[in-house]
């Protein structure tokens, strides 16, 4: 699929996820919604962030496709087989433009996905803090902090931060 189309689909899906907050009833259903929205938002902003920052940095993308997460290689063996069942959308870069842009621009493009994903989880946690009882907001913060911890541990090994360092 063309990268711009895939990114647009992800952003439209993210809009629907966030708009659903207007119809989810208060209380426990909204608390569950916040957790689900956090997971979906972290996923749905990842490729668009790579695409936007990469495009601004002069990197072209060939396609967007479904594949397996490279983070599966960094996980302990018992989780690797589980992680490989979850498909993720990945952007294929144009190798020619990757060769001509500076290392710092390539690194910035790689880092953008993780930074956007972690930021999305924290933004939703902040909103939940003001919108819901403390117990549901606390769950949102636990998810955001757990996601941050996951990225701190695994992204430098085989994720976007590993690619940024290699760039």
Largest sheet: 2 strands, antiparallel
Count of discrete structural domains: 1
Mean pLDDT level = 84
**Number of strand elements:** 2
Question: In which order are the strands of the major sheet placed?
Answer: 1-2
Order of helices and strands: HHHEHEHHHH
Low-confidence stretches: none
| Strand content range | 5-15%
**CA-based gyration radius:** 17 Å
Span between termini: 26 Å
Backbone structural class = mainly alpha
Number of helices: 8
Quaternary state of this entry equals single chain
Shape: globular
Helical content stands at: over 70%
Feature tags:
167 residues, mainly alpha, single chain, two-stranded antiparallel ribbon
Write the layout of secondary structure elements.
Layout: H1 3-19, H2 28-44, H3 46-56, E1 61-68, H4 77-83, E2 87-93, H5 95-100, H6 103-131, H7 134-158, H8 160-166
Antiparallel strand pairs: 1-2
Helix pairs in contact: 1-2, 2-6, 2-7, 3-6, 6-7, 6-8, 7-8
